[in-house]
Amino acid sequence: MGVAGVFFGVLVGWIIGSQQGSDRPAPAPVAAPSSAQAGGGQPAPPPLDESRASAMKLTAQQNPTDAVTRVQLANMYFDAGRFQESAEWYEAALKIHPKDVNASTDLGIAYYYMNQPDRALQQFDRSLAIDPRHTKTLLNVGIVRAFAKDDLDGAAQAWQLVVAYAPDSAEGKRAQQALESLRSAHPNVGAQGTGSKPSGS
Length: 201
Fold this sequence. Notes:
Layout: H1 3-11, H2 33-38, H3 50-62, H4 67-79, H5 83-96, H6 101-113, H7 117-130, H8 135-148, H9 152-165, H10 170-185
């Protein structure tokens, strides 16, 4: 059974940006498109509010040090499924505020949706350099490694860290569920313990 087949039912919708609340569902993973299609498809993302985006772009242009508006624009484009434009605005925000771990992780997620998993993992490494215990980043590291890189040991290592750092959090519970699903199909994966921080490709 393929990796995507093992995890799709468990992890669909788990690639969730730090900016997203429970009322803002994330798109399904796209690094394994055939699996996503087999799962029956996902609803189309809501269209972008172009007038609001235009007003916010004007605000950003008038305020070259305004990282907050740039992140908000990135979030809007992300929610609309326009990941290239979303990534551009996260990148712009990070030029102003490079230590924003949430924006950094959300940028990595945008790269993943652009089918650039190596770039996503590199960006997650930057997030973990800011905060090595950032559980949303570690959860997404595991998902990208499992879905896009077929790196089951790397995925397990990342999820083990999430469980170790925040076992009672939403991310910890999701990571534990992912580990259980992984080990049911591949009992020897991740048996070596948590190890060190996951590295990029």
